[in-house]
Amino acid sequence: MKFFIFSFVVLNSITSFADEGMWLLNNFPTNTVQKKYNFLATPEWLDHVRLASARLAGGCSGSFVSANGLVMTNHHCAHSCIEQLSNANKDYVSEGFYAKTENDEVRCPEIEVNRLVNISNVTQQITAATKNLKGQAYNDAQKAEMAKIEKNCSGGDDNIRCDVVTLFHGGEYHLYKYHRYQDVRLVFAPEMAIAFFGGDPDNFNFPRYDLDVSFLRVYENNRPLVNKNFFKWSNDVAKDGDLTFVSGHPGNTSRLLTVAELEYLRDFGLIRNLLSLSEYRGFLKEYGNRGIEQRRTSETDLFGVENSLKKTKGKEEALLDKNFFGKKVAEETKLRQKINMNPKWKVAYGSAWDELAKAQLALKNIKISLEKIEQTSYGSDLFWKAKRLVRAAEELQKPNEKRYREFNDSRLPQLKQELFSEAPIYEEFEIAKMTFGLTKMREDLKADHPFVKKVLGLKSPATLAQELVKGTRLKDPKVRKELFEGGQKAIESSKDPMIQLALAIDPDGRAIRKKFEDDIEPIIKKQSERVAHAQFAVNGANTYPDATFTLRVSYGKIRGYAEGATQINPITKMQGAFDRHTGSDPFALPKSWLDAKTILDLNTPMNFVSDNDIIGGNSGSPVINKNAEIVGLIFDGNLQSLGGDYGFDDSVNRAVSVHSAALVEALKKIYKADRIVNDLLGAH
Amino acid sequence: MKFFIFSFVVLNSITSFADEGMWLLNNFPTNTVQKKYNFLATPEWLDHVRLASARLAGGCSGSFVSANGLVMTNHHCAHSCIEQLSNANKDYVSEGFYAKTENDEVRCPEIEVNRLVNISNVTQQITAATKNLKGQAYNDAQKAEMAKIEKNCSGGDDNIRCDVVTLFHGGEYHLYKYHRYQDVRLVFAPEMAIAFFGGDPDNFNFPRYDLDVSFLRVYENNRPLVNKNFFKWSNDVAKDGDLTFVSGHPGNTSRLLTVAELEYLRDFGLIRNLLSLSEYRGFLKEYGNRGIEQRRTSETDLFGVENSLKKTKGKEEALLDKNFFGKKVAEETKLRQKINMNPKWKVAYGSAWDELAKAQLALKNIKISLEKIEQTSYGSDLFWKAKRLVRAAEELQKPNEKRYREFNDSRLPQLKQELFSEAPIYEEFEIAKMTFGLTKMREDLKADHPFVKKVLGLKSPATLAQELVKGTRLKDPKVRKELFEGGQKAIESSKDPMIQLALAIDPDGRAIRKKFEDDIEPIIKKQSERVAHAQFAVNGANTYPDATFTLRVSYGKIRGYAEGATQINPITKMQGAFDRHTGSDPFALPKSWLDAKTILDLNTPMNFVSDNDIIGGNSGSPVINKNAEIVGLIFDGNLQSLGGDYGFDDSVNRAVSVHSAALVEALKKIYKADRIVNDLLGAH
Fold first, then answer.
1. Which of B385, B422, B426 is nearest to B85 (CA)?
2. I need a labelling partner for A59 at 20 to 30 A (CA). Which of A404, B80, B228, B680 fits?
3. For residue B267, which residues of chain A lie inside 8 Å, CB to CB?
4. What is the mean pLDDT of residues B586-593?
5. Residue B4 confidence (pLDDT) above 50
6. In this predicted model, what pLDDT tens digit does every residue of B31-64 receive, in sequence order?
């Protein structure tokens, strides 16, 4: 854990000087950008960007880059698919993958791609539905209204996905309508060794030399998607100072949270996550030493854990920075003073902060039980499926708007994709992960908790995990499908040990969740709405909401930064990858690169940094120029950008991208991936 | 991680109501105890307690309990010896150990027992030596004076150990003179399953049912020590409300630290430790899954890590408690106000807090480098030895008072015991631990740090660890002895890869250490002295210093406590162990207990809690009554007591002990350990 010094110059104050903001497509700061960069983002330009952007529903971004459905994203966004398509004899993660013909393109079992076709503001409908309500009634009414709006929007068409999105923590509600694509096939992935060159040590650092790319193709009716809306490839080579836009799906930020909410994270939530991620990392790395196959099957998880760990450390360090946190406190104090000075505002919003602080305490008291009784599957994918099957049987008997949100009609296609996925499940790994998860559950709730006794009985976590994983038939997708379709009767008569355990603990999970959803969640929602309206009242609404894994555009430029006394050049060259090659993992270039060295133009730009405001979820986002042409591919941020969860400092926060020139150079000369190059450049 | 609620009623304010304090033997609150408990601790009583108490130099406490050198301590204090005496065919950790005859008693390779024979106050000598000095000169002069005093005290006799101890963070300096015993043999240990019944889940909890005991015997001239000073066994069965004394060696507390120092711990030091312990725990647990032998050889480490982790969590939670920390801040503010109101005090002490705060920032900046370049051996016992051998060769050429403290003449016997130990070293485990340690080093310093490149070169941590461990001959104690005795010449001509690496990085370690010892340590020491004198000036000197792993006596009583609405009974019974038995580790009683169930008196008191003020290092301390007779054996504290590092709350902080009645019942009926029972009770 390297503690770095934050020097947040600008905090949530949108000035024309900082390239701050993850902007809504329907509230883009056109004037600001025009003034600063002399570029007018027309409605047509914004529509085109929206339609050429892609969301990977699992948690990443991407872009449509050809007329025949090609989608570009990061290697690490397709990593789990690449692993799922591999086996003990053929490891596409380490060897790379290239479909030489269309027939060789293979379907990813669990990838869903979304294209945002429309946004509408449904704030009035939502707030009308919850007017004068509070507590459970407020929460139930809001969820029911959301479910109704979503169902009306999709009209029951599984190819349409509609999500009501809460913006500004309740300040506004927008309806996002997507085209949903579930037939997504793998076209190309380089070797992990170059996709993630430098590995965990280099992750979130710069200079970098990674080719973190993969290409997928969206199919419709078993044919490559015929696609009008895609980003063209730039003919120019982007250079220092160039204006850049990033169009992608930042997952989550907390810039508008109150001080009490940030304290909850700093003193409890994040520390808890850090400890659990650290221990899990230690376990996973050593699990990989059981053997080559165990390493292969656990690598995706390890990557995810190390990535989260580094991110969470960065977030915690930002909150622990006294200057930074002091500014947050000062801002809130100032806002509250202004609210209290206006009698009308004081009545409308004045008490919201204290109410939220109380809710944080209540949340802290319930959090561990909520997590360990309801929100976890103890590390087991199989048990996750068992719990979902048991819940689905009961939930799907209810009308749409009475169900838990994740069982709303609009969510069912994704649930089914996950439940019926043909992705391999590794018994040994499942047992190991579940042993770990059950042990942590006992540790968190303590050995004498009735729930612990209910789950473990007289067994040790290891014994129970072994019995459940070996005994369950849920490894077979057909069995899962039968249980899903068989409904409550099939579930209740099932002899499957995982189904039986999931059924036994289902009431415990529902009970603790009810406590949260009736007593805590509505307070947080309602008071956050009030805080949002207070912010609007004082600061106006010309701003951007916290990230919500919905499409945002950020503007900025290719730009270096200072780290201590060192000025960091914003663009690296391919030569640098060879200079950094030691031959030892994670600094070992793959054979294909070593072999091709002499034919490569080593002066080709490889990676670059820009001051675009991004965060996790933006992985795979296209970086485009003012002509909406691809100049790069986001794959990381620098360490300093991790504090960006709570505030943006454009002097040091940087997005890290693969340069478009390196992509083409590698595809042409190293991988001879002519089909892809033609798809990309043939568009010209 | 279970967050519990602190309710610190009393904080550092010594009143006659709380049983607070880890008291110096030469500053015992005789009057307070007499007033409160109507018991007069005479000088003779205190001398007897001192001489019958034992310190295990590795980090535990113990007591002399017979006329023939028997020493009682915890199982977990002798755990590493028990493991070192075991092998793949005979596992004394899981099976237990009992020497039926004197000939069967086996020497522990690395245990040193100390008996405190004298304490003298050397404050004047130390302060005279450093008068008017600061920075490096201050630090060098202080260390030289300490080395001189210690050498004069021992007179070069290896059987005498003399330590100058810094009390009140520099308020006073005392010379502790010990008799040193290095021939210590294992006599008895129960099975791990009962010594640590409930395992990590029950650790630091109560009610408990553990027999965490082992018996060692001190030998002199190859014969059991003839011993006049020992604690007799109590004929009475201690019960709720009984007055109890604990005489032991609390390792470290931080009750007198300034707010800036506590913030350093809360926001940096402890979090760093927590993350590293968590990851190491994950690694170790999974390493144990490599096989039975790997589990056996890694168990001691895992126990230590889990124990430290729980303790550190408790400490961090205490500091994160807003009420608790707020009181610390308020206390310091009050103290500083009083100091500033007195012009003489203001000059003498007024700036100390700010100076200390600056030093904490400087320490934070250097800490990771200091730790990773100088203070760690990357998890490898062999490399620890290599580093010590390399250092010793150079240091021992210097006069005693110019050496690093750990190479002072007075420390050499312990160093030699550790260096030449015959304890087994497990190659596979060494490689795994060193791979982990080198990986963390690269992560902390970052891949491009010159030191990282110097150590790893082009190799991965795994490759380097493998080469070093396989290649070194240091596994053989004879080789280590030859290198030690061969001095600088032997070291410099050695072809051993570990010696060569240790030699190569020695200058880096010395350089960063010099920076710390010249620029930071003297400020912390000098300013802490000033803070201590300020505290004396305002509050008087009738108090106890922070724990320093030196002998302290705490008074208190057997006493339950409330946990939420539940009142916890202070004494458990043997029956409870059988009630808690599930048959699954860690809740599986050993066969010996199950077999003996019918002949045991299940009403025998098993464990108890008392409000004695203890902390880590007190493990193995005797609990005695007013007649200085054994009534129990400290082995743990409750969760609430973990915050005791920073302040004591006698309403909930509890020490946890094995009851003397359970010890005798088990020794007699389960283990038929008549020799021990005779040693213990024959004294009557």
1. B422
2. A404
3. 320
4. 98
5. no
6. 999 999 999 999 999 999 999 999 999 999 999 9
| Residue pLDDT, tens place only, B24-40 | 999 999 999 999 999 99
> Is the pLDDT confidence value at B7 over 50?
no
Contacts of A221 (CB under 8 A, 6+ apart): none
Judged against a pLDDT cut of 50, whether residue B663 lies above it is answered with yes
For A113, which DSSP code? E
Residues of B in contact with A275 (CB under 8 A): 1, 274-275, 278, 313
* Alpha helix stretches (DSSP H) within A186-291: 192-195, 199-202, 259-264, 270-287
Percent of chain B surpassing pLDDT 70: 97
Quote the Cα angle for B142-B144-B146, to 5°.
70
Query: Which of B2, B282, B446 is facing A446, going by the closest CB pair?
Result: B2
Round to whole Å and give the CA distance between A206 and A202: 7
Per-residue pLDDT tens over the stretch B286-305 = 999 999 999 999 999 999 99
Which of B313, B446, B585 is opposite residue A201, by nearest beta carbon? B446
Burial class (CB within 10 angstroms; exposed 0-12, middle 13-18, buried 19+) of B88? exposed
How do residues B398-408 score in pLDDT, each as one tens digit?
999 999 999 99
All residue ranges of chain A with pLDDT < 50 are 1-16, 683-684
CB B505 within 8 A of CB B378: no
Residues with Cβ within 8 Å of B440's Cβ and at least 6 positions away in sequence, in order, are B276, B279, B372, B378
Tens of pLDDT, residue by residue over B486-522, are 999 999 999 999 999 999 999 999 999 999 999 999 9
Q: What is the pLDDT of residue A15?
A: 44
Q: For residues B16 and A81, what is the distance between their CA atoms, to the nearest angstrom?
A: 68
Q: Among all residues of chain B, which has the CA nearest to that of A445?
A: B2
CB contact under 8 A, A285 and B283: yes
Query: How far A315 CA sits from the closest chain B CA (Å)?
Result: 13
Residue B17 pLDDT level (bands cut at 50, 70, 90): low
Give the chain A residue whose CA is nearest to the CA of B286.
Answer: A283
- The CATH number for B23-112+182-254+545-681, chosen from 2.40.10.120, 2.30.170.40, 3.20.20.80, 1.10.3210.10, is 2.40.10.120
Torsion of CA A294, A300, A303, A308, to 10 degrees: -120
Predicted pLDDT of residue B682: 82
- On whether the CB atoms of residues A269 and A257 are closer than 8 A, the answer is no
Q: Which amino acid is at B663?
A: L
Q: Is there a contact between B3 and A364 if contact means CB atoms under 8 Å apart?
A: yes
Q: What is the length of chain B?
A: 684
Report CA A58 to chain centroid distance, whole Å: 7
Domain limits of chain A? 23-112+182-254+545-681
pLDDT tens, residue by residue, A328-341: 999 999 999 999 99
Tell which residue, B318, B465, B458, has the closest CA to residue B11. Answer: B318
Provide long-range contacts, Cβ within 8 A and 24+ apart, for A322-326: A323/A6, A323/A8, A324/A6, A324/A8, A324/A11, A324/A643, A324/A646, A324/A647, A325/A262, A325/A266
Q: What do you get for the CA distance between the two ends of chain B, in Å?
A: 47
Burial of B24 (0-12, 13-18, 19+ CB in 10 A): buried
Q: What is the pTM of this model?
A: 0.94
- Amino acid (one-letter) located at A293: E
Chain B residues with CB under 8 Å of A274 CB are 271, 274-275, 278
Q: How far is B84 from chain A (nearest CA, A)?
A: 24
* Mean pLDDT confidence for B532-541: 93
Q: What's the pLDDT score for residue A17?
A: 62
Task: Say how far apart CA B257 and CA B535 lie, in whole Å.
Answer: 11
